[in-house]
Structure prediction request, 432 residues.
Amino acid sequence: MQGNENDPLGVSTIRTGRSESSRSNATLPCLTILAHPDVARVGERAVLRALLIGQPISVSRLAPRFGTPGGPPTMPLGDPHLSREPFQLEPAPGGGIRLTARNVNVRADGSDVHETRTFTAPELKSGAVLELAGHVVLLLHEATNRSPTAIDGMLGQSDAIEDVRQELLRVADLTTPVLIRGDTGTGKEQAARAIHAASPRSGNEYIAVNMATVPESVALSALFGHTKGAFTGAHQRHRGLFERASGGTLLLDEIGETPENVQPMLLRAVETGRILPLGDEREREVDVRFIAATDSDIERELLGRSFSAALLHRLAGYEIHMPPLRARREDIAILLFHFMRAELATVDQTQRLQELSSLVVASGLLARLLRHPLPGNVRQLRNVARHLVISNRGHSPATITAAVERQMSQQEPAPATPIDLKKPTPSTRAGG
Prediction:
């Protein structure tokens, strides 16, 4: 993710002759704080404007100045463990950046820098992780000059998540059905909740149902309800999810798992706003905002005729793609420390945040997370934070335990590569 100074980037004009909208979408080189002894500074950003006109930039405890997204730069890194002796960043051929560190200990993407290291344009697009003195971690990358949009539950500062937030707001006040797609654990349900919270329906019901967990035998009753005596055991009228969500929002998660016998009635409900409860003789009107979510390749299922093409087209009135966490690397630290703070609050140990965050940096765990593909995305990162907190209850000093290592061993780290968000990424089957 990228975006303004802390979030997206707080940058200035790049070239003359461009419109304001073009400037705001241009990517610029920057440094983002991923870890700092003062956890509150995580996410602050310095825009490296001088590189755009061919001038070098010195980086030390005293310079450059960092600030929050969209705001002015306010203070340098300032950590006493860092050297006053700077390392240099300067433009390199082909849109890259050369780092020179002759008397300063800098690690870049897990390897010590011996005098110089050149980052190519593709590497900058993904972001290069710089570890300084075992206390500060920075991301050298490119980002745009946009201030972050505040939406509950949608944390992060990258361009990728800011794009999502803008799309959520663009569609929130409409009644158009929305299909949210993305790999497992990318936050599809959080996006659905954000749409509901930003909509005129926010004061009414929000109901989420995972279609993969609804048995086919009861799916029609669960969704559309039934009358008393509709079948053996139906001792009273039952209001289905559609009626309960009327006036509000209904999320149909794992929509690709919808039983085939349910799909025609679901299509009619989405098209007409009318449902027929089991055993009833008259249809009932419902006023529901439909959101569907999936991490599967529904188009492939259409070829096998297990999913209705008409239903897919109706639900996909507007599509939103959730980016994988590896495409928003500058958000990993923000999310990790947020989850750690939340988990520590559940065990009444919030005072240990500084201790655990220092451990995460000094042990190299954060740097490993930033290089890890994190196939479970945000969900996996939350599990790492949970294991880190729980496994260290009653342990002082804190350590990286086997439980945390197991979370990290789900998949071997892979080289960082740019993510094309316009192309679907391989996914696994699970909730999102």
Remarks:
- The chain has 15 helices and 17 strands.
